Amino acid sequence: MKTSTARAIQCSAALAAAGLLLTACGSSGGSGGGSGGSAQAATATFKGRGPITYVAGKDTTGTVQTIINRWNKAHPKEKVTFIQLPTDADSQRQQMIQNAETKSDAYTVLATDVVWTSEFAAHQWIEPLPADRFPLGRMLKPVVETGQYRGKLYAVPASSNGGLLFYRTDLLKKAGITEPPTTWGQMTADCAKVTKLPEAKAMSCYAGQFQKYEGLTVNFAEAVNSAGGRIVDADGKPDVDTPQAKKGLDFLVKSFKDGTIPKEAITYQEEDGRQAFQSGKLVFLNNWPYVYSLAQKSAVKGKFAVAPLPGLNGPGASSLGGSNLALSSFAKNKATALDFMKFFTSEESSTYFLKHASLASPYADLYDNAALDKQFPYLPDLKRSITKAVPRPRVVQYGDVTAAVQSEVYAALTGKKSSGQALKDLQADLQKLTAQ
């Protein structure tokens, strides 16, 4: 492993909290969004049946083992063992890379963050998959694209993810606010009104994920994209030293300085923000949809709703998150693994994860299901969030790229550098990394 990659993996998002996010079966649906299905199948041999492992972040929702148990009951000679890694995506990635570099067969099916596909495929740590074995045509196109590398399918969507704004409906209503904010300015103005309420004086306005890990890359990217900027252009060339990107970073820096974002949020990962919101410390929270089901079981049940992320001059743009399933190149019993991947990423399994863990489905038709929309009224907003989301840079050197982003943005948030200097330094870092 290159030294720079080692540094990066010692440094995400999302949704490692569900055990399959960090971010998917049946062959009847056709190949859809994949290309070269038969050619891909010829590059890998799916032989061997017997026990396998499923490797993912810690399951905080309690849903993953249920699906695995269903498989194990029907396949007693091909049982799946669930290996749970830490909740943060950086640690998950580190352990998966370590397993691959030793060519160990301990890991079979990997739950990978959507931004790892290029890196894992380029290093031949994961197998190209037969696209015609999965119903990709029924999935949202941007989600399917996260599993592709150089025209081949290397990972199948298990879930998607789009950032959402969770907010306290009871407090906004009491403050005379009838609609959630669509801009950063409106959000801070709403907070000023809400925190004048006796029951909200000790509350902070807003938080996302700002610890130096993948979540910081996600939140920075959302701020930049929501201000009209971008990290890389359409050709993958760095384009972050711009007035638009500075407006996005300035919003975060200023919010830490003026208290819009509480100082302790510099240590927040997804779960920290969720717990702060549920315990009544925040009026607004930027997080993934998995929070919805858990918050419904907390003290804020019936007191919150979900809206699109706000931006500089209107609705913002989420980073595209989610989890894909990939097959380790060094695994045994790959025939079993492929069948398990089809089972785990089926629309039936996806519906279960949506209903019981509010995980975003890759299947388009679930967002237009009247019964599900009634149970999860945020689904239309979530679909828009996913379809309009901006992918993080899809580069082979992603580990180094995200480490550079985290380092420079964290320096700006903690006052060690100005926004302008941090972006100039980040532009230089990214130019070196993408030129390799």
UniProtKB/TrEMBL annotation:
Keywords: Signal, Transport
Residues making up the signal peptide according to the UniProt record: 1-29
Keyword hit for Oxidoreductase: no
CDD domains linked: PBP2_TMBP
InterPro entries attached to this UniProt entry: Bact_solute-bd_prot1 (IPR050490), SBP (IPR006059)
Stored PANTHER family: ABC TRANSPORTER PERIPLASMIC-BINDING PROTEIN YCJN-RELATED, ARABINOSE-BINDING PROTEIN-RELATED
Family from the record: Belongs to the bacterial solute-binding protein 1 family.
Protein name, per record: ABC transporter substrate-binding protein
Lineage start: Bacteria, Bacillati, Actinomycetota, Actinomycetes, Kitasatosporales
